[in-house]
Write a sequence for this structure.
């Protein structure tokens, strides 16, 4: 443990100056840039001492061999060379498993941060094949993603049968997964044609583009599980479903402001399209990416609302709160 930590003994952190800086954003307005921490190499030196012996520990990897470090060299360089070497099977296996989990909501080894002998993969041959391809292609992440997305497994339906109804580990069918916090937030903005606004950020910036893990003044992302980025563990992001999530979608500002914005896409649609049927079809396409069924089309009647715009808002609100919108697959 101490030998491993010695690779990072000369890594230091200091506060940056950006917290006092103001930059001009693309709209021409001044924006205060949030403070940050700068990670740098401490040339003054530094060692990890063994707590019992007090001896300075020589850098050493847990298994295999890494290049020797020079007195004035950066210890992280030989460590990174060792970590990403083709002779180190754990890096490629861990990353292949992690990428797989992003597409399926579950790793072949799950949880993805718990790789050990006591937590074996559900399909060792599959993980070995992905690892081998990842290594062969020089750690090409795009090729790994393409292989996964072109697989029969990824293209399976969420529909179950009597043979796989209770299967949760063998990927015999697709599993619906709730969109992440950023995906929901951005999807609401795209579907309604509105522009999101974050405190101290340019208007229109997407949630997935916001660099800070804790966006001031926006509780939606925190509630729906956006990580604070205080840990490298995947477990920091949550995708649970609770009454709080449902109440926020129904009564919260995020969906409400997007639907009620006077200059959103719904209002522009109502101004340009006079036929109610085409309005309904457009809303289904923009929110659910499909046309309405005959039954769904017949159930919508804008004449029961105070005005057409209000009727379209009610329909958009209902679609944005439907499982079909909130879940992948």
């Amino acid at each position: 443990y101490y030998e491993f930590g010695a690779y990072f003994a000369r890594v230091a952190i200091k506060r940056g100056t950006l917290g006092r800086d103001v930059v001009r954003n693309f709209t021409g307005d001044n924006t205060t840039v949030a403070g940050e921490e700068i990670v740098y190499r401490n040339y003054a030196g530094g060692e990890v001492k063994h707590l019992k012996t007090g001896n300075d520990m020589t850098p050493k990897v847990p298994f295999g061999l890494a290049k020797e470090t020079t007195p004035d060299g950066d210890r992280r360089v030989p460590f990174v060379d060792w970590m990403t070497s083709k002779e180190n099977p754990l890096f490629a296996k861990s990353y292949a498993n992690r990428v797989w989990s992003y597409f399926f909501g579950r790793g072949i080894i799950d949880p993805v941060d718990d790789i050990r002998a006591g937590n074996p993969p559900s399909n060792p041959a599959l993980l070995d094949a992905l690892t081998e391809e990842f290594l062969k292609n020089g750690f090409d992440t795009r090729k790994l993603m393409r292989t996964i997305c072109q697989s029969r497994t990824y293209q399976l339906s969420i529909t179950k049968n009597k043979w796989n109804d209770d299967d949760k580990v063998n990927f015999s069918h697709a599993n619906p997964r709730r969109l992440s916090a950023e995906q929901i937030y951005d999807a609401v903005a795209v579907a309604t044609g509105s522009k999101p606004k974050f405190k101290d950020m340019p208007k229109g910036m997407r949630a997935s583009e916001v660099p800070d893990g804790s966006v001031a003044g926006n509780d939606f992302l925190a509630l729906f599980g956006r990580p604070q980025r205080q840990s490298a563990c995947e477990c920091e992001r949550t995708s649970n479903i609770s009454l709080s999530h449902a109440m926020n979608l129904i009564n919260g500002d995020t969906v409400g402001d997007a639907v009620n914005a006077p200059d959103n896409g719904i209002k522009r649609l109502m101004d340009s399209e006079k036929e109610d049927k085409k309005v309904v079809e457009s809303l289904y396409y923009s929110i659910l990416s499909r046309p309405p069924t005959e039954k769904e089309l017949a159930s919508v009647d804008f004449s029961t609302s105070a005005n057409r715009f209000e009727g379209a808002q009610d329909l958009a609100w209902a679609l944005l709160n439907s499982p079909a919108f909130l879940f992948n697959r």
The longest helix spans residues 89-104. The mean pLDDT is 86.
